[in-house]
Design brief:
The protein is of the alpha/beta class and 238 residues long. The chain has helices at residues 23-29, 34-55, 74-96, 113-125, 142-155, 162-166, 214-225; strands at 6-7, 10-11, 15-19, 59-66, 101-105, 133-140, 179-182, 201-204. The protein has one domain: Decaprenyl diphosphate synthase-like (Undecaprenyl pyrophosphate synthetase), CATH 3.40.1180.10. Bound molecules: 3-methylbut-3-enyl trihydrogen diphosphate (2 copies) and magnesium ion (MG).
């Protein structure tokens, strides 16, 4: 397993996972519709992704829409799909230009067909890049991901090991997230990367996602760098 890069004395997480929560409340506070919060959130997501890769992080997984979010009002969902239609391709081109491969993780089959095509097309454009990756979790649920993985093994007549199960998840071949950041004041995982984050350092920010700045990301990374990661061992064994 490859080690962590050290930049100016700070240990960088190889993989960061972000639960981008608080768009709706951020907009509401400004007497604006929730869709305005999602627009600003998408803009911020791109800025944070660019900053993370520029710092030297190798993988970032962002939670953009959960399986449970599909139960939201149709109007809100339609607004989110329109954002993807208008901005996803150009935004992802901007980030992927850093040699980053995009993967959309989750079961996107409930999305409108044209939106699915945009997402798959966007993935193909960066499919030749190796070594750095963005996973955009859309219609994603960790439990559904695990059930899918186990069913893949069953269909092959296999029993699973920890390593083979990891290899059947959407994040196959990637290092596990080492730092998980959740904005929006809630202290929960909301069905995100439950298996992969077994040993992630968990960072919760009171800021709503649209106001989570590049500097806030750096603060989270510095906090990560100062954690003692024991993985079950004692301090003396490290
Ligand atoms: C997160 O922000 C983005 C999505 C779930 C699409 P929310 O929309 O959950 O914002 P809050 O939590 O209501 O403020
Ligand atoms: C988690 O946020 C999902 C995403 C950020 C995409 P939610 O707003 O859906 O989480 P809960 O419902 O408050 O747990
Ligand atoms: Mg929320």
């Amino acid at each position: 397993m490859q080690g962590n890069k050290i930049v100016e004395g700070i240990k960088l997480p190889r993989h960061i996972a972000i639960i981008m929560d608080g768009n709706g409340r951020w907009a509401k506070k400004r007497l604006m519709p929730r869709s305005f919060g999602h627009r600003q959130g998408m803009e911020r997501m791109v800025g944070l992704l660019e900053h993370a890769f520029d710092l030297g992080v190798e993988y970032v997984t962002v939670y953009a829409l959960s399986t449970e979010n599909l139960k939201r009002p149709q109007e809100e969902l339609a607004g989110l799909y329109d954002l993807i239609r208008k901005h996803f391709v150009s935004y992802m081109e901007r980030v992927c230009a850093r040699g980053v491969r995009l993967r959309v993780i989750g079961d996107i089959s409930p999305l409108p067909c044209d939106v699915q095509e945009i997402l798959r097309g966007s993935e193909q454009k960066s499919a030749h890049y190796e070594g750095k990756g963005i996973n955009v979790a859309l219609c994603y649920g960790s439990r559904a991901e695990l059930v899918r993985a186990v069913n893949l093994a069953v269909a092959r007549g296999e029993t699973v090991t920890e390593a083979s199960l990891s290899g059947l998840l959407y994040t196959a071949g990637q290092p596990d997230p080492e730092l998980l950041i959740r904005t929006g004041k809630e202290i929960r995982l909301s069905n995100f990367l439950l298996y992969q984050c077994a040993y992630a350092e968990l960072y919760f920010s009171d800021k709503m996602f649209p106001e989570f700045s590049d500097k806030d990301l750096e603060d989270a990374i510095v906090w990560f760098s100062n954690r003692t990661r024991r993985f079950g061992k004692t301090d003396e064994q490290l």
